[in-house]
Amino acid sequence: MNSAEAPHGRRRIVVDTGILVSAALRPNSVPALALHKTLMHFDVCVTTATWSELETVLGRDKFDRWVTVEARREFSAGLRTRVVLCHVGEIVSECEDPGDDKFLALAWAAGAELIVASDPHLTRMHPWRGIPILPPAAFLVAVR
Fold it and tell me: What whole-number distance in Å separates Cα of residue 19 and Cα of residue 32?
């Protein structure tokens, strides 16, 4: 992961775990296309907490029937080289699902332009503190 202190000439974005997992499991899906677009045009920001959640979820045996654990590890390893690790100083407790507050806190701390999320607890908050929260299909249409 790149450090948040490193120069970053591009705009910043947060992508929730659901989008990343869907992209790993279904490489031709709308979430995968959205992830591809984010990586082309934005710095995708993560924290140690959001990254840990991704690796934990991708390691679940229930996904073996769709994609091998090796392929999921390769996805994670490839993505790891493309994301920016950010530090969150402010605790946020505004989401109906407290487990999703980490994405809001990350977006705020990173100065993210927007959040791409599949989780309805997040998408129902659109916009949050002026930060749009878009599902992947809306992101693909709205951001050029």
Answer: 7
* Alpha carbon distances (Å) from 144 to 31, 64, 78, 97: 16, 35, 24, 30
pLDDT digits (tens, 9 = 90+) for 62-94: 999 999 999 999 999 999 999 999 999 989 999
pTM over 0.85: yes
Q: Of the candidates 40, 16, 30, which has an alpha carbon nearest to the alpha carbon of residue 107?
A: 16
CB atoms within 10 A of CB 82: 13
Domains of the chain: 2-141 (3.40.50.1010)
CA distance 124 to 58: 25
